[in-house]
User: What shape does this take?
Amino acid sequence: MKSVRRVRREITSGDVDKRAAVLGELELLGGSKVTDILQWDSAGNVYLTATDQLPDHVRRAIKKVKVTPNRDGQNSIEVEMHDKIAALRLLAKHHGLMEATDDSNRPSIIGINLHGPGAPVTTYKVEEKDEEDAG
Assistant: This one.
């Protein structure tokens, strides 16, 4: 897997084909699921999909497969996927989803009314001060 800095550099480079390829790869990694490789039933039996039956994009999402023989002659298999969150974070940054939002269109509080059972209504009014008044 490429380093995060290298991927960022390629995304922002001027080469349109390279940018599209990197974004496509990130989308594949971000959309990968462990259930593309492993299945399990309610009894706890785990089934591994054969490599020749895995689509290419699923194979590319696999970072590591570790097979360890057990004492009873069975193999213990670990499958590690590439970091999905990192891929999604890079995609979100690329598409501007991580940027601060403009607060000018958000509603503001004009006043607060507090009502208690059997108590008089307490009203607080929010007043804006001019810069001259604030100093």
Observations:
- Residues 33-81 form one domain.
- The chain has a mean pLDDT of 79.
- The CA atoms of residues 100 and 106 lie 13 Å apart.
